[in-house]
């Protein structure tokens, strides 16, 4: 009897000791389920890629983020028709999703120089499939944020042009909560020490409309919304910070001279001070007119004179 009590006491002591050790050094997360050590969380907070034990440069992060973003786009399905609840493959065949290298031209040149745009599209070389994006974005190229040595064209169910200043990496410390499109980092990522880096994309659609998106990437530069997503109510909260900023071509006007009091765009999008002045970022197109002078884009308040010109 005494021997059995000693065995039970020893087992309880071991269980209690292990529990103290485990909960002092590890944390359990749900949705998705994951167990991380406090050391890993601390490294995550420092922006370190734990798998490699180092902090990647923005150039490395940008290349990896672009590769993983298009690789992800090559798989899975999208919701096509709410009337019959149809789901379709993003890429029904591998060749239906292609990347094409293009010269490093400005977004404005692509939008407003129709002859150049048609010529560039006709001159496209053989494409590279989304699933082989690692070959399209080679390692021996310098990937400066918002200053790629080339532009490119992506053709899938939607065809889009990415100008040379399309893409960049930003750190969380560089962003303000009012900086659009930055809606903060989901709690499920912050608790793990993630959400430190963001992939910014500027896209010109086939209909010549401009879209801006910002996505969270992990410290190793991977865009992995399928790993870090959680169901909340009737929707899934994915590893992205926003649905993007939409600017249709009809709201862009060509002028020979920029009026006094307008703001020049930074990194291919309206200045943050312009966006921050609005209650909702979507209101931009109703409060500001976007002007193109042949070299740069500007945001100008919609004065009565500008409204009359647009109408």
Q: Can you tell me about this structure?
A:
Keywords: Membrane, Transmembrane, Transmembrane helix. The chain crosses the membrane at residues 7-24. Helices cover 28% and strands 25% of the residues. The protein contains ten helices and 18 strands. It has helices at 2-25, 38-45, 58-73, 107-112, 114-122, 133-136, 187-190, 272-276, 284-287, 304-310, and strands spanning 26-29, 34-37, 77-81, 86-89, 98-102, 128-129, 151-155, 159-162, 167-171, 197-205, 210-217, 230-232, 235-237, 245-247, 252-254, 263-264, 288-292, 297-301. The strands form five sheets. Strands 5, 6, 7, 8, 9, 10, 11 and 14 form an eight-stranded antiparallel beta sheet that branches. Strands 15-17-18-16 form a four-stranded mixed beta sheet. The chain has a two-stranded antiparallel ribbon with strand order 1-2. The radius of gyration is 24 Å and the shape is elongated.
